Known about the structure:
Layout: E1 14-20, H1 24-36, E2 42-45, H2 61-64, H3 77-81, E3 84-86, E4 91-95, E5 100-103, E6 108-116, E7 120-122, E8 133-135, H4 139-148, E9 154-158, H5 162-173, E10 177-181, H6 194-206, E11 210-212, E12 217-222, E13 226-230, E14 235-238, E15 240-243, E16 247-249, H7 252-256, E17 261-262, E18 265-267, E19 279-281, E20 286-290, E21 294-297, H8 301-315, E22 327-332, E23 335-341, E24 348-353, E25 360-365, E26 371-377, H9 383-394
Parallel strand pairs: 1-2, 1-6, 2-3, 6-19, 8-15, 9-10, 9-15, 10-11, 18-20
Antiparallel strand pairs: 4-5, 5-6, 7-16, 12-13, 13-14, 17-18, 20-21, 22-23, 23-26, 24-25, 25-26
Helix pairs in contact: 1-8
Amino acid sequence: MSNPIEVKATLQPAYDHIIVGGGVAADKAARAIREVAPDASVLIISDISDGPLYRPGLSKDLWLKPNAELDSIDLATKENTGAELLLGTRVTALDPKGHTVTTADGQQVGYGKLLLATGASARHIGTPDDERIVYYRNADDYRHLRSMVSEGTRVAIVGGGYIASEMAAGLAAVGADVSVHFPGKRILEQMFPDSITGHLSKLYESKGVSLNGDFFLDSLSAGEKLVLKSTSGDEVVADVVVLGLGAAPNIQLAEEAGLTLEMGGVLVDETLATSAPDIYAAGDIATYDDPILGRRRVEHMAMAERSGDTAGRTMAGERTEYRYTPLFWSDLFDDGYEAVGETRTNHRVEEHWNDEHTAAVLYYLDDNDVVRGVLLWNTWDSVPKAREVMAASKEGKLAASELAGQITPGG
């Protein structure tokens, strides 16, 4: 895939369906619309300069697989759906009454049905405007970061969560000298108990990644080298800094249009319809009623895929309900996991390991001993069973004392 260029298309006055956003949810929605209503016109407007990509590849395959290129994660949305793509273009206004959107270059376009799939943006803090400081989120960020990293490049990652853990593994795999700096005691401690974080600490260090807890960033200065200073006065010198501080949902367009918001997202019903007629929301920004966990908002790939498909089908005339508890997953060097629900260590965690202590099933229980999340550590093909356990626990059909043996670790 060559570097994209911004294309100013000549648009129709109106489309049957407009999708605002250029990620996986947009791709899935366009595919569903095409399947249900082959003759419908579809326009995808995205402020990103690439068409929809399989986003997990940006922090996984492109770093971990030899010779992997951006083409390998391109979803080929236009070719597979016939949708018109308007890239590198921001939608600045949404008029629910007039059924129109307005772009930054002044184009106004009408719609029959609209999907907001605007995703989330990397959280920013006050940092110098320097190309060596990267907030990692999209393909342009990948191109830029990859161009600066080679064998021995000193890369400091700030953050101890999901994206920081994956980027540390990926950058180490291509030979960078990686250090990770985070305020907690151990990386991913908000998700994993000591049994796993202790293992990960040893694993990352064995791969040459330096993990530095109790690091509270005070300042980041850009001179000949980048210098990070902690609140305790410690300094870290780096060639490149990657900031992995989480993401914020892109809900400004919905908010300004008067759509109902809740839990930091756009509130939707069982068909992913918003409070405004003919407007739907999917992916990171959708606040919905999970059939097991209740009202929540989820920023993971499975959510984007399934909700995009559901919204597209309903928009095209095939009413479909979103009744789904999404999973998420990651690979960390030679280990991997799949998980469902609230895998947070502020819940009580019950651990079940195999005899070799290489695989585990972890249950996350609330104060009422109801299972709110399941983590499958090096345990595969068990997500459906994990959902069954959570549903049975919620309904009072499975006691906490009966969890042992429900899922076999390492299965």
